[in-house]
Design brief:
Low-confidence stretches of chain A: none
Structural class of chain A: alpha/beta
Oligomer: homodimer
Largest interface: A-B, 58 and 58 residues
Strand content of chain A: 5-15%
Helix content of chain A: 40-55%
Number of helices of chain A: 14
Shape of chain A: globular
Mean pLDDT of chain A: 97
Distance between the termini of chain A: 8 Å
């Protein structure tokens, strides 16, 4: 028996006082003043938002454990400045820690980082350490474009990112590469920006040589790896044209794709071209697409059904549902092992 | 018997004097002077670049006709200004017209447009009219991000694009949505920028209501539609969340995807989720990925093999290879019909 681990859950249903404080914080920044005190939020308020949403859906759909992080679209690193981003990150991450504390058998935290356009990563490393060492978090979400939709940051292989990678390696935690909300009217967040950014990140990794420098660094590229599995021939061919090693050696010892692909043919393609050791079960729930697929009568984001239906071995399915996540997140493995799981 | 039509070929092998003139043009712009006169290029020079490359490969691989346009990555609309872009476009398009004149049975022209960041579309419409009415071209390549990699242009549904769409409808020609080279160090052109831009364009079309305004407007989204078929469930679900009609009605009467997807599993997915009436055979040849796939021993971009191997009806395959292209490009259909094809 094994735990089914969802590697990609966001607290999209956070209590309203939390969201209202954020609005007040933004308004205060704009006005040049200080934000109000963060509101008191009771355990019961948190319990209710989880029990009626994520926990209910997890139970209905048959997963056991969710790796849980703040709402991705609300990270909004492009808003305000470094101090605004850091205060918001701390409150968001603290809320995740409270969820994990209230439901320790079901949720484990992953933090957002207080990135800010033009700022260095000092605050992000500080918050990563706090979340891992003090709050028991097991990873982070790294925004490759904190500017919010114009791709002005250096590629992920640039040395400006290295101090964060060093801290990640020291703490033995991975990062999910995940942009936030878009401030670009041409880029819809969940339909265009997320998928484009996933694809761009993977190509940056092909062009560089990051994992030779950081062999223990681990990245999850969400939303099924963006366009990458669909264009796997293109990426294999481009690696060859760029005189890089084969992708299996050059990138795929350090990169995983999740299963946030909302139809069976997409998941079938993912499992056909990507080694099962590189796939992590994920749903992005409660998330980007909340409706029911009229073609199947099931929720689009009930990705467990698609993985259940894959024509793969039991061993491969267990790796996708649990084993791979425990390798990518060793701190989760230790926690589950301590519980006898 | 039917002609096999490749909807996506670029003149990536243009004669060297043409490329050298471009370098001189850019240098002159930088120095504030006038470019040198455009060089004389003989028919034999053009013949040689085509016969040893595109024509050889077309014959080896078994296609009949290529819809041919200037090298996409060299359009570089972000370089120079409106006058630079217009002069370069005219020379590039004239060269395509010469190829089509020398090999009328095999090549038909599609033009690049002299877009320029911040400029309106007056010059683009002028050049489109010249190419269609005087040079016999049948379509255009429209760059949704002439800035070259920061996505600062308004979405394709914005009314600033409408004058071009009006001209396209009047002339009865479609556009392939195709970005050019990237001036963004984080965006590799063929591996990141192209695929991201394709995906972004499709989501813009979902968010808007462009085809209610222009029911005869036709777009080809190249590179297999970017990430779209792989994430078809996400796009169907987002259309539903945005309270748009089903994609079949909202977008897919006006949008086609080509087959520039360089492995069999990708093409299989494309044909599984996208109606065959919306797929156009294309290879992007001689193009983005020029090597041989070690897994198959065949060229990555020999996409005809993948389409040949699809488990679809003869009728569907004929539509992908020829029938759809003749509907999307009525001026090509008229030309082939006049030849008894």
């Amino acid at each position: 028996m094994t735990q089914i681990i969802d590697c990609h859950g966001h607290y999209t249903t956070a209590p309203e006082p939390h969201n209202k404080w954020r609005e007040a914080q933004k308004a205060a920044f704009k006005a040049g003043g200080a934000p109000p005190a963060y509101p008191a939020i009771s355990d019961d308020e948190i319990r209710e938002t989880i029990e009626t949403n994520q926990l209910r859906l997890i139970r209905e759909r048959g997963a056991d454990h969710t790796i849980f992080s703040p709402r991705a679209s609300a990270m909004a690193h492009h808003v305000g400045d470094q101090a605004v981003s850091e205060a918001w990150s701390i409150h968001c991450n603290n809320l995740i820690a409270r969820v994990a504390g209230l439901f320790p058998e079901t949720f484990t935290g992953v933090c957002m980082l207080p990135q800010s356009p033009g700022a260095d990563l000092t605050a992000s490393i500080r918050e990563l350490r706090r979340c891992v060492e003090e709050l028991g978090f097991i990873g982070c979400n790294l925004n490759p474009d904190p500017g919010g939709g114009h791709f002005r940051s250096p590629p992920l292989t640039d040395e400006s990112w290295f101090p964060l990678y060093e801290a990640m390696c020291e703490l033995d935690v991975p990062a999910m590469i995940h942009v936030s909300g878009s401030c670009n009217p041409g880029l819809h967040a969940t339909g265009a920006y997320y998928i484009a950014a996933d694809t761009i990140a993977f190509m940056q990794l092909i062009e560089g040589d990051l994992f030779a420098r950081f062999p223990a660094l681990r990245f999850i590229i969400p939303h099924g790896g963006g366009a990458v599995p669909y264009h796997w021939g293109r990426y294999r061919g481009l690696a060859d044209m760029l005189k890089k090693p084969a992708l299996a050696d050059h990138v795929m010892n350090n990169v995983w794709f999740d299963t946030c692909v909302y139809h069976q043919p997409g998941i079938d393609l993912l499992a056909r071209v990507i080694d099962s050791k590189n796939i992590l079960f994920g749903s992005e729930m409660v998330g980007a697409v909340r409706g029911i697929d009229p073609e199947t009568g099931q929720y689009f984001d009930d990705t467990k059904r698609y993985v259940d239906a894959l024509p793969i071995s039991d061993e491969a399915r267990a790796a996708i549902f649990a084993g791979n996540a425990r390798r990518v997140f060793p701190r989760l493995d230790a926690k589950l092992t301590a519980r006898g799981l």
